[in-house]
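Structure first, sequence second, as always.
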């Protein structure tokens, strides 16, 4: 099968095209022919040598896909999507049978390739936050795939959101909330705005930034609140770190990633997702957050397209998903 590979670590230029045998299926796996996949931040970090796959997992990039189940006779069956620990940038992939999600009829296979990773990540983080209807939370990188998914799900669950992103991306999130923060303003200006929206502080912060936004995070959180940390785009080290606000406000820090979770954990999460989130797609109450879809065949041209998508993500230029649709 054809797949995308890395010729070392570095910039998008290390991305190349290779061929390998079809995946060897384990008893609990199904072979799927991929019809679309999306580029995620984790892919760009892996390309840079900063986010290695877990031991025993393929080093082929790609954490989500849509496609068709390959039947025993080689014909193509039902349309499915799911997340992966790796292997999505390829013609075929082996997927845990309990992780397969049937694609709703009103969602195209192209669109579905950009749903699993961001919406399951957002759904997991909302579960971990213990937010309930009428609570209010602060969402960093709100125009990203995970950010927009979080805003959409919170809206459906009755949770109020404050969306923080660059000024040129605020237009993409204004449809989900009228509480907007321009992250290019000073920390003091952002905090003043947040306090207008949530005078007693927010119940949760969904944070993929880390150190760069620590002051805003810690001052925005209210009593008995939860800080959900799922990325470190703004660095890991906080100068003059002070634990006192955690104790004074009884703040809980919950760190989470999805890729490294166990198969059993993912199975439970996906089953809950099917019950609580998938019907929202079917009812057209939520939808995939797409910046660009590029249709392409499996030839050398696909590499240039993927390299360009990686460049867009490296520069934080996209607002929503970047999807490769395979002809």
């Amino acid at each position: 099968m054809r797949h995308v590979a890395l010729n070392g670590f570095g910039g998008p230029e290390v991305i190349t095209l290779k061929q390998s045998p079809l995946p060897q299926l384990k008893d609990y796996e199904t072979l799927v022919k991929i019809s679309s996949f999306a580029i995620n931040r984790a892919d760009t970090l892996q390309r840079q040598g900063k986010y290695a796959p877990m031991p025993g997992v393929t080093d082929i990039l790609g954490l989500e896909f849509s496609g068709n189940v390959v039947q025993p006779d080689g014909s193509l069956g039902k349309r499915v999507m799911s997340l992966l620990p790796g292997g999505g940038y390829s013609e075929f992939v082996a997927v845990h049978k309990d992780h397969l999600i049937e694609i709703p009829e009103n969602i195209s296979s192209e669109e579905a390739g950009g749903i699993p990773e961001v919406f399951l990540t957002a759904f997991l983080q909302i579960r971990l936050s213990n937010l309930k209807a009428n609570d209010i939370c602060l969402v960093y990188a709100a125009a990203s795939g995970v950010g927009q998914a979080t805003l959409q799900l919170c809206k459906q669950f009755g949770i109020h959101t404050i969306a923080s992103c660059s000024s040129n991306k605020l237009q993409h999130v204004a449809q989900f909330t009228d509480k907007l923060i321009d992250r290019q303003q000073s920390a003091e200006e952002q905090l003043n705005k947040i306090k207008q929206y949530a005078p007693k502080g927010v119940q949760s912060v969904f944070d993929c930034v880390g150190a760069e936004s620590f002051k805003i995070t810690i001052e925005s959180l209210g009593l008995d609140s939860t800080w959900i940390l799922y990325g470190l785009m703004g660095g890991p080290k906080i100068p003059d770190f002070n634990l006192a606000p955690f104790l004074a406000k009884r703040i809980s820090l919950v760190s989470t990633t999805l890729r490294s979770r166990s198969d059993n954990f993912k199975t439970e999460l996906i089953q809950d997702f099917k019950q609580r989130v998938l019907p929202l797609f079917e009812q057209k109450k939520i939808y995939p957050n797409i910046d660009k879809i590029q249709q392409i065949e499996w030839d050398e041209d696909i590499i240039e397209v993927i390299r360009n998508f990686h460049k867009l993500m490296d520069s934080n230029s996209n607002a929503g998903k970047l999807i490769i649709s395979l002809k």
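Margin note: The CA atoms of residues 3 and 90 lie 4 Å apart.
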